[in-house]
Amino acid sequence: MRPQKESQKDRDVRIKQLYDKLNTRQEDSLDLSSLIEGLKKINHPLQDDQGVLKEILRSADLDGDGRFVEFKTFMEKSEMHLFQLFQSIDRDRNGNLSMEEVEHALLQASVTVSKKNLQAFFKSVDTDNDGEITFEEWRDFLLFTPHSSLTINAVYAYYQATHMSSEGDITLSDKALHGMGDFIAGGIAGAVSRTCTAPLDRLKVYLISQTSSEKRISSTMKSRISKAVYVPSKNLLKAMIQIYREGGGMRSFFVGNGLNVVKIFPESAIKFGVFEASKRVLAQMEGLPRESLGDLSSLSGYLAGGLAGSVSQFAIYPSI
Q1: What is the DSSP string of 241-275?
Q2: Residue 200 pLDDT > 70, yes or no?
Q3: In this protein, which residues make up the domain named EF-hand (predicted)?
């Protein structure tokens, strides 16, 4: 099936116009320098990627002379692949892609994309901002995308690699952000946990030090103590009051916590980050989609946990 209802004559004219626009020197053939100049003229995102452009020229120029016939053959083949992918995403067969259809295709391909980045991707393709992507918009956006292994994963990776922010900086991918988020979340969780339990640690140290002192009490005093009624709750309460009074209030329960947080933050960050990364790798080895990490086998879960603990301990060993 041919892309849309464009006639062969109209297609030939459109491709020839594109060829002439890229061939800025108006020579008989199109070489790398001419292609770069042409892409800069139309502000194409691949204008500075010489590696990809060389691969495109190798694919398009069948006999090495860079003439229009080879370029036309390459473009028609590329558009056919793009149209087949477009049709596979167009679930309701209305000839346009909705944001829900694009999101569904990405999820089916195990590509996790935030709502914000999905909207940005959709807006980049939907040039007339009518809420739908036509095949023409799809085709023009993916102009010169290598079609040897064209999938929705490749399309989104192409968008991530070429999409520029308003300041001209390459935006970070969801995968990278998600990976960093695992480490940051783990570090924050460890710091919060250690801070919340700091008063109990302080109390434990205090009671241990008191016990050591009591061992030096005379045998007579020990005898008297042994005859006393031992009430744990009263001892704990006394210790807490003593720490509060001697240390200057609530701050005394958090003495040394800053150093503990400095130590626990990287440890927890590495442990949590490696654990999540290990689960994703093991899930891929088991053939599970990314959203089904909960179905990971028990053995893989133990392996991920063991690896995470080993890596974190090795990494922070000097601070122990």
Answers
A1: HHHHHHHTSGGGGGTTHHHHHHHHHHHHHHHHHHH
A2: yes
A3: 77-112, 113-148
CA distance 85 to 102: 11
Cα 311 from Cα 320, distance rounded (Å): 14
Please give the structure tokens belonging to residue 53: 């452009």
Helix, strand counts (H, E) of the chain: 14, 2
Question: What three-state secondary structure class fits 134?
Answer: strand
Residue for token digits 């502000």? 43
- The token duo for 189 is 């969780």
* Amino acid occupying residue 104: H
Q: Going from the N-terminus, what domains does the chain have, and what CATH number goes with each?
A: 8-162 (1.10.238.10), 181-319 (no CATH)
The partner residues of 97 in beta bridges, in order of sequence, read 133
For CA atoms 193, 178, 272, 317, the dihedral sign is negative
Closest CA to 28 of 66, 69, 54, 63: 66
